[in-house]
Predict the structure.
Amino acid sequence: MPTPTKRLRATGRVTLSDVAHAAGVSPITVSRALRGERAVAPELVARVQEASTRLGYVPDPAARALASQRSNHVAILIPKLSNTLFVDLLDAAQQTLRAGGFQTLIGVTHYDEAQEEQLLREQLLHRPAGLLITGWNHTASARTLMERSQVPCVHLMDLPRQGEVGPAHCVGFSQNEAGAALTRHLLERGRRRIAFAGAQLDPRVMQRLYGWRSALQEAGLYEPTLEWLNPASSSLALGAVMFEQIMGQTPAIDAIFFCNDDLAQGALLAALRLGIQVPARVAIAGFNDLPGSDHMLPSLTTVRTPRAQIGTAGAGMLLALMRGQPPEQSCVDLGFEIVGRHSS
Amino acid sequence: MPTPTKRLRATGRVTLSDVAHAAGVSPITVSRALRGERAVAPELVARVQEASTRLGYVPDPAARALASQRSNHVAILIPKLSNTLFVDLLDAAQQTLRAGGFQTLIGVTHYDEAQEEQLLREQLLHRPAGLLITGWNHTASARTLMERSQVPCVHLMDLPRQGEVGPAHCVGFSQNEAGAALTRHLLERGRRRIAFAGAQLDPRVMQRLYGWRSALQEAGLYEPTLEWLNPASSSLALGAVMFEQIMGQTPAIDAIFFCNDDLAQGALLAALRLGIQVPARVAIAGFNDLPGSDHMLPSLTTVRTPRAQIGTAGAGMLLALMRGQPPEQSCVDLGFEIVGRHSS
DNA sequence: CTGAAAGCGCTTACAG
DNA sequence: CTGAAAGCGCTTACAG
């Protein structure tokens, strides 16, 4: 009577050589057949696959990483999880990568370049197969780390400005143009004294600021006193505070462009509380079209940003790079959309 | 003249034996000294450490995982990233784990037990050192997988009810009691016809529902028609829709307990739009105290839930379990707080 | 197209 | 307290 096959392994794990035995081939052939490397006879591939599924074989990621010097991890560095924007980006990227057989390792930089560098250092130890990173303002050491590691990398969310030298691979939209476009939208609706209220002041917010500035300068309406910058984190609460400040100190203002929707939502609620008419007295606009903006009273004019698409396309580009296929375009512009609602 | 030491490794990586050479000991001694395993002479430890930092040695996680059958990854499974609640939980847990030297691998289940099982299967292949998981409603196979893997595991967010057999290790608060407590708060403020509006209908929402039910039953005010359950995802938009529905169909209602703050915020904005007075005509309460709830008009009465503390304490408990130290308490109750504001 | 050998960089028993 | 040997489970060249 045949007894069930004895496992000699201490770990009890089904290994490559177990499959090789069962299929009557060498381990290396199993390895090749399973990875879909060409140069294996179709008949053998079939036998290997049958044995593999029959035994319930699953490759060991650690062994694979050690032997190949490459893991199936992709590291993704984002500034903050509390901004819905990055959650959407992450969710989309993760889904695409997972479908491609990769695990995602998330690092949260808290908008701090030093922390980003530290995280990068840690992540790189795991020999990630690829890297997704927000923006391209990194410390010099971080840049060196990335280059030396040779790990394929895609930068997300912003694009190099005209003539600027950007990273090799990126997916995003022009934060600068989006800032300018929203400002022009307000100008077209007859606004003349348009303030810019920025928080966090990360590189992308600064690009929006520059866009706003150039649009106002073109119209001959720029004034430094229209700039309200606060390095604190963007939040509903801060938006309310900034709104009161701006309205209190510069009553002549007829529109405010908040660099993120949470600020604008806070401003809208503050206006409601203070009885300041929006848009009659002052127009309010935000950025990103976050959840809730369409339900505000009045509904918020904003810029819809394609963060989910950026996540998907960025991950897709990285997948190609990891396979050694250079993508068709090295930088992809996914654009943006002005969403005119009742607050302007 | 001494030439710089030649690296024989193809990979160019500084390895354990490089350090061993430099320190004049065997590789295994380096391994032991660096991991702080006792039974190494202090003098050797010092020499090893000096050589290690001088050469810039960093252990290879893949090799370590392969040899020890244990990685330095901790898997964390949460239902959804788009609910701020879980982002707070994750952020806190991640921070604690990182300080303990562990990388976090995130799995998003989308409130789907089958997806959870699939993720668990994938994660377990990486031999995580530990597991953090939301709730304890899992498929039978998922439970088996967890048990057989022997991976230390802490369940987050809910506690077993009185007399119920829960998981071995958990950190959370009683969703049931929180639901009952908020309902009693509304009763104390004189409300008699208190509806429950639930979305998503995950296990924790159901516990809140049961808590609401028992509080109303105690007061002799329970009626099945007060229950409004919708399996769709919780959102501001859904809250607005449910509010209109409830007010349209059951005008006698004088309070609504929404199972999550985003629903309640949507309801508040809908009330503003429709000109329905809150709390004069109807009181509104939410759950979780999410960002923005304190800025609503009127500000939202809700339950503040200690998700960040749950993340920290859960990760701390897991850290202890991974070190082989059984935690003092197997289940930790972190409580909750009723936040009475102007909407009730 | 297939395989035997060597190696990835560490740790786990097993000796002493 | 220290070390030589073996092994974790795969893949990378190198042959044929």
About this structure: Chain B is about 45% helix and 15% strand.
